Amino acid sequence: MRMAILLGLFAFNAALAQTPQPQVLREHIHFPPGAIWTQDISSTTPASNSATMTSASIGWGTGGAGGTAFQLDFSMHLLYTSWDGYSFASLVKNSGYYTTDCESGYPFPLPPEGTAGAVEGVADYTSCGGGDCHMSVVLGNTLYESYQTSVDSSGLHSTCIMKWHLNLIYPPEGRGEGCTSTDAAGFPIGTMLFSPDDVFAAAQVSNGDLGHALRFTMPNDRMRAAAYVHPASHNGAPSSSNANAIPYGARLRLKTTFAGGKSVTTFSSNESVRVMLRTLQKYGMFLSDGGDIPLIADDGMFSTKSWDDLSVDSHALFGIALGDFDVMPLGTVIHYDNSEPQAECVRNHFGEDVVFSDGYNW
User: Fold this and answer.
1) How far is CA 24 from CA 80, 270, 271, 303, in A?
2) Residue 92 phi/psi, 5° resolution?
3) What Cα–Cα distance (Å) separates residue 306 from each residue in 74, 198, 200, 208, 253?
4) DSSP string, 284-340
5) How many Å apart are CA 21 and CA 18, to the nearest integer?
6) Residue 2 burial by CB count (10 A; 0-12/13-18/19+): exposed, middle or buried?
């Protein structure tokens, strides 16, 4: 029976390549209260050398000498199996599959292609052209994620797949010290994305926010080399030799006044933009990967609302610079260099399910 379902899923034809249908307006998924992604940091005292770190990194600014603008990237999708059913696909490991860091041996849930499912950067399950091709799928209390993804009749091709248990508070090192995920920092991507539906729902509440930290990137040469801090458990290719540069895993918070002395209310009259600003001031954002477009959002392909409905485009936060953020206390800076032989993932769970001590059991 399962094989029949799987074969049916991959019988691609013109009927499947239809225009995506809007889903029921939804709110965003969350880890439990107390998980680091949902912690309110609005009153946290910044790191004593916060300004030194932002000056050393100059990751982005208003343009020109300040770096690339604080732009929004709308290329990802957060998918839900509850929207329109799903089928399971077998894993086909790509060359270079991270066997220690990533999972194997379990099927991956796929919503129907085109109507409720797609790979990052494209509107279906085909290759996204050599990019990261992320996929994030929610099934009940589990977030499934895949990196360098495509789907064909043989199954789901991936360089890394994994599960995140959404009813669990993970320890500081996440899935294990030195372990990557579909994100270079070892993070769960889906729980830091936000869709137009998420923003719209928050905008209906007085002083609403998204309820969780966001995900951001910087160019590799602006991030501290051979280092990360928790909750990151890994880094990508950071290459700045400046010892004060911001490391992977750092959490930044938007200042009360920013963009030349503006506040949330004076920066924009658009309540959707204000939702994002309040979120950055209350929960901040985590440095997750290398990239030239800082802030990562869901493209809204499967949302009821669109970004156009909210009058939000990729330039909605232009005018904000890296210096408008405070860096939160880093904690212990962990040395990690992918090129070193001892750089390997040390998993902190037994088998497929997570077993922790020190209060992190679930």
Assistant:
1) 11, 24, 22, 7
2) -115, 110
3) 11, 11, 9, 19, 27
4) -EEEEEE-SS-EEEE--TTSSS-TTTTT--TTTTTT--GGGEEEPP--SPEE--TTS
5) 9
6) exposed
Strands 214-218 and 160-165: unpaired
For residue 255, give the DSSP letter. Answer: -
For 12, 89, 109, 114, 136, the CA distances from 17, given in Å and listed in that order, are 8, 19, 19, 6, 20
d(CA 295, CA 217): 7
* Rounded distance between C-alpha atoms, residue 359 and residue 361, angstroms: 6
Over residues 270-308, the pLDDT tens digits come to 999 999 999 999 999 999 999 989 999 999 999 999 999
Count other Cβ atoms within 10 Å, centred on residue 4: 9
Residue 265: helix, strand or coil by DSSP? helix
Instruction: Give the domain ranges of the chain.
Output: 31-347
Beta bridge partners of 353: 350
Single pTM value for the model: 0.89
The 10s digit of each residue's pLDDT in 246-271 is 999 999 999 999 999 999 999 999 99
